[in-house]
Specification:
two-stranded antiparallel sheet, five-stranded parallel β-sheet, single chain, mainly alpha, 47 helices
Length: 959
């Protein structure tokens, strides 16, 4: 495909960076450039040169270009030639190209050498000189040239150099060991010829590493659609030429993802020149066999033979093997292409009729594989064909469309259908729509493709597919998919708008009496997501109404999720058993939409750790071409579970994986949910500044959109950070906005913050409020939801109890079954118990405080570890394990300043009392923070409470 170009030959819309000197952007080739630099510097005294060997387009010529620039910079003269087919039969054509810049030096040579060179360079008539005379004349010329300085000789594409030049160059290279000459040559892998006799060092030039390839593509072609970028990286397979040229052969709409990419990417002129000649020179039988193999990606020798009606033999593939195009292992029937673009070259060189004929032959050969047979029939079709469209539709999408309802007695058939990648199902539906003769069928298939595209990471295709489907804005199916895409795809993330659209779609379906299982199921899944994040009853009620349209068994995962979030205290034992039974009933390759609602439900009742392996298995199965929109929340749920169980490094690794996928595929909604979790994680670790920054960013995004769960996690980051600093007033402000005092909620995350609110209220003198909140939590039955919440509420009861009653309550909380499985809350209760024991002068305080320090250190809760360490030191135990432990006592003046700052006085107010400048006060505070093992003013109160009276240097500090 032609592209508009500027005078330099670069595509106008390429975004290609300026490249003023050859070879300056050789990403991933540092080792090769350093090797050549060492040759130029004479570091490798035993080598006269280097042979670069690699596949077409891998960057050999670019390396030679870079070598020429670097050699010139090093003060070397550079001469070069390149073999081409049309000069391969012209004697001394390559030598002429290389030596022409040195022609003036020939005048200094002996007559016999000058006469020979004149004939080589075309300056004198006569027959071509004999090889011996030519070789000695060239050697003499080079000797004369190197008197003035070192020389670099470059020979590119050496298999195409004419025989006469090759003989002379071979003669010369074998005799330049003592001269300041370096010889560089390049050849493609598998080529043979004279250069193999030169005993040059060989450097294999392989494809670029994946990360380097991605960086090169992004630098040359910024703004590619996510799915387009992934496809180009796959097809290029690390080939630098392909990375530069493949996007140039696409239209701007294709590059942005607005228009779909073809099954085989078009090749630019340079790529055709690189990959096509080897194919064009093959025998007809070989090209036919390769076309069959190219059109069926998984074809082995058996399929190719069957499609060719046994007219193809392994021997027919031998020419392709010799040309380094394919690898054949006849013993196991394996046939594979050396590079993905070889397939493209084979297909593009075939005529349309040849391709259609090959597709029909493959369809006949694949009668036992309905999916692939349907694909080939579709590609062979020349116009609308409903039987083919129906076959393609059913073969690729049956499991996706019917979900759990697709279960039949033939479980093997269902599993086969589910193995079809979701992204392939989108392509199948798009093609089925093109082949549909009836507008209604075409519209239905394109709408289904749009919905699946919202799940498979093909978000840029959704608007075009919905437009092509021709659905009016008020049609129910259009609303379902628009709402789902609206919720999942971009920064809009307006759950209120999504809820209104879904409510209208459900009403329209009910009013018209129409019933399309796929439409209804789409509403169900979209409603679940809206309900999970809106923190309001209306979406949950609408979800309940929608579920009533299904058989109970078909919506069991959704019903369990509904119960876990809306009514978890009604029958918690039955809920947990239902979850266990549902997970156990899942097939090994269960559909993602069956698993994800169960995973959300398990997180809500703190039970996901029992089923992590199932979620991880789904992630591995679906991350490549599958349900990406479910892989990302699955990673988020595993992250949340890891945080709960004290595996914080693992949690953040999972979060980063989810963020990377969300960024690549454009799922900004899920990106924000993961960032909200990471904000809470920063609060848990005691990183106050990071927690505040992340919290503010998340709140700014979530608040205007009404995504209240995300807001709650953002606030949680602030209250957790404040708890770590001992700033209970700040903690109470934020936790009370998550779960208002006196009204504990079984919702998310309210059910998990009872201890946080009660402790913050008690520490700030709001005792009655704390006890009232706890009483309502007990009446509501929050403790019945899970063992973790039982421990949380028991710990809150101990914190809120009268001083004389607290001991047994702490003991009861810590002795609950499985309490240690949740180390953050468990250590918090140990810490609070240790504080109480120290206040009542019970020596057991050291035991519980030591245990809390160990757990906080282990999980990474630095601020809480330091608070516990301060308390432990106050009992007379020396603590030096913590990296932030105080090492120096405060001076009397520092203690005065710290106490006044802890009361809330400003630096100016403290200075007025102590007759010091506010700058001096600030300097003192800056120095005393490390002594106390804290990082902010908010933590002063807790740090001072943990100090023993004797921990003050009696010297008065002076400025």
């Amino acid at each position: 495909m032609a592209t508009h170009q500027d005078p330099s030959g670069s595509p106008l819309d390429s975004g290609k960076p300026a490249n003023p000197r050859p070879g300056t952007d050789l990403a991933g080739r540092t080792a090769e450039l350093e090797l050549m630099d060492s040759l130029f510097a004479g570091h490798d005294q035993g080598d006269t040169g280097l042979l670069l060997r690699g596949a077409p387009g891998v960057g050999k010529t670019a390396l030679l270009d870079a070598a020429a620039v670097r050699a010139a910079d090093a003060g070397m003269r550079v001469v070069r030639s390149s073999g081409v087919d049309f000069e391969a039969e012209m004697d001394f054509s390559a030598l002429h190209q290389m030596l022409y810049p040195l022609r003036r030096h020939a005048d200094r040579l002996a007559d016999r050498h000058r006469d020979v060179l004149d004939r080589i360079l075309g300056h004198a008539p006569g027959p071509s000189p004999d090889p011996q005379a030519a070789s000695t004349a060239v050697l003499a010329l080079l000797g004369e040239v190197t008197v003035e300085g070192p020389l670099l000789m470059i020979a590119d594409n050496v298999p195409r150099i004419d025989r006469a030049s090759a003989a002379a160059l071979g003669f010369v290279v074998r005799r330049i060991g003592d001269d300041p000459i370096v010889f560089l040559a390049a050849t493609r892998t598998g080529a043979t010829g004279w250069f193999h006799q030169l005993r040059l060092s060989v450097r294999e030039i392989g494809p670029l590493p994946a990360q380097t390839a991605a960086e090169l593509l992004d630098a040359r072609w910024p703004g590619l659609g996510p799915s387009v970028r992934r496809r180009l990286l796959t097809e290029a397979a690390g080939n630098p030429l392909a990375l530069r040229e493949l996007p140039a052969a696409l239209s701007s709409r294709q590059r942005s993802g607005q228009d779909p990419l073809p099954a085989f990417l078009p090749l630019s002129g340079r790529l055709e020149t690189t990959f096509a000649p080897a194919v064009e020179s093959l025998p007809t039988a070989t090209r036919r066999a390769l076309l069959l193999a190219a059109l069926e990606a998984d074809a082995g020798l058996t399929t190719v033979r069957k499609a060719a009606q046994d007219s193809v033999d392994v021997d027919d593939l031998a020419p392709a093997q010799r040309a380094e195009l394919v690898d054949v292992v006849a013993a196991v029937g394996q046939l594979s292409f050396r590079h993905p673009l070889i397939r493209s070259a084979i297909v593009h060189l075939a005529s349309p009729s040849e391709r259609r004929s090959a597709h029909r032959a493959l369809a006949a050969a694949l009668s036992g594989s309905p999916v692939r047979r349907a694909w080939h029939l579709a590609e062979a079709a020349t116009g609308p064909d409903e039987p083919v469209a129906r076959a393609l539709d059913e073969a690729a999408l049956s499991a996706w469309r019917r979900g759990a309802a697709a279960r039949t007695s033939d479980e093997a058939a269902v599993r086969d259908r589910r193995r079809v990648a979701a992204s392939a199902a989108v392509a199948a539906l798009m093609r089925a729509g093109e082949l549909s003769p009836h507008p209604g069928d075409r519209s239905r298939r394109l709408v289904e493709a749009a919905f699946l595209a919202t799940i498979t990471g093909q978000l840029e295709d959704v608007p075009r597919l919905l437009a092509d489907a021709g659905h009016a804005p008020d049609r129910p199916t259009g609303l379902v998919f628009a709402a789902t895409a609206h919720l999942l795809t971009n920064d809009e993330g307006d759950v209120d708008a999504a809820y209104r659209l879904l409510a209208r779609a459900l009403d329209d379906i009910t009013d018209t009496g129409t019933h399309h299982g796929w439409d209804d199921y789409g509403i169900l899944y979209a409603l679940l997501l809206v309900s999970l994040y809106a923190l309001r009853p209306e979406p949950w009620q609408l979800l309940k109404t929608a579920m009533a349209r299904f058989e109970p068994s078909a919506v069991a995962p959704f019903r369990l999720c509904y119960d876990a979030y809306v009514d978890p205290t009604r029958a918690p034992d039955a809920l947990r058993k239902g979850l266990a039974d549902a997970f156990a009933a899942l097939s090994e390759d269960a559909a993602p939409w069956e698993l994800i609602p169960l995973a959300f439900a398990a997180v809500a009742v703190d039970a996901l750790s029992d089923y992590r392996y199932l979620v991880s298995r789904m992630i591995e199965r679906e991350r490549d071409g599958g349900a990406i929109a479910m892989v990302i929340p699955a990673l988020m749920l595993l992250c949340q579970d890891s945080y709960v169980h004290g595996q914080w490094d693992e949690a953040e690794s999972l979060a980063q994986e989810g963020l990377d996928l969300a960024a690549v595929y454009g799922y900004h909604f899920w990106e924000r949910q993961i960032r909200a979790l990471l904000a809470s994680g920063a609060g848990l670790r005691g990183d106050v500044d990071l927690a505040r920054t992340r919290s503010a960013e998340t709140t700014t995004w979530a608040a205007p959109r009404g995504i209240e769960v995300t807001e709650a996690y953002a606030r949680s980051a602030r209250h957790l950070a404040a708890l770590g600093q001992g700033d209970y007033e700040e903690a109470h402000v934020h936790v009370a906005r998550i779960d208002p005092s006196g009204a504990p909620s079984p919702g998310i995350p309210g059910r998990w913050v009872v201890l946080d609110l009660v402790e913050a209220a008690i520490r700030t003198g709001r005792t009655d409020q704390a006890r009232a909140h706890l009483a309502v939590a007990r009446e509501t039955g929050l403790h019945r939801i899970s063992p973790r919440i039982a421990m949380i509420t028991a710990g809150a009861a101990a914190v809120a109890a009268d001083e004389r009653d607290a001991g047994p309550l702490f003991e009861a909380a810590l002795s609950l079954p499985q309490a240690a499985r949740w180390p953050w809350e468990h250590a918090r209760i140990q810490f609070a118990y240790g504080q109480w024991l120290r206040r009542v002068r019970d020596p057991r305080a050291r035991l519980y405080l030591s245990a809390a320090v160990e757990t906080f250190d282990r999980i990474g809760a630095k601020s809480m570890a330091q608070r516990a360490r301060n308390e432990l030191r106050a009992t007379g135990v020396a603590t030096t394990a913590g990296p932030d432990a105080p090492t120096t006592a405060l001076t009397v003046q520092e203690r005065q300043i710290a106490e006044l700052a802890a009361l809330g006085l400003t630096n100016k107010q403290i200075g007025e009392r102590l007759f010091l400048s506010h700058r001096t006060i600030g300097s003192h505070l800056h120095r005393l923070y490390p002594k106390l093992g804290i990082t902010s003013r908010a933590a002063l109160r807790a740090a001072l409470e943990g100090m023993q009276p004797g921990e003050v240097d009696q010297r008065v500090g002076h400025d």
